[in-house]
# Entry
Amino acid sequence: MGQKRYLEIGKITNVHGLAGEVKVYPWCDDAAFLCSFDVLYTDKNGKHAVGIERARIQQNMVIMKLAGTDTRDQAEKLRNTILYMDRDDVELDEDCYFIQDLIGLEVHDADSDKIWGTIRDVMQTGANDVYCIWNDAEKREYLVPAIPDVVLETNIEAGTMTIRPLEGLFDAD
# Structure
């Protein structure tokens, strides 16, 4: 299962001030994470790198000064631009994954041969993430809490996740 090297991390939504700063809506867990990059990209292939001169958080948005963008007019042209990060620039903690890498994993039961389905979304609820697993054969969605008691193994390379559902988790409504 091939991993995307460049991942969407935010979108320029507006200009800020007169000196070429832009407002970026973060598409990551934490706006501070977006502020940690020295270089981002304006395309999903990593061909158009842009240096980050400075970045700060303001009301859950990131105010960013991009290298070479020095006027309001230049910044205005970047409105609605999606910014991408290079996954090689980030060292994730063990048992942390990019959502992009979880989408499409086939979910297996630890105690039987059952395949519960495929992860098609990850909901971030605050307490813990919830995996939305679609079972095509049953035309049914299962919601699985992303907690150690349930998720036993995540193998991005093999494209699989092994779970042990809590008692009653998947009982019919």
Observations:
- Residues 117 and 135 are 4 Å apart (CA to CA).
- The first strand starts at residue 6 and ends at 16.
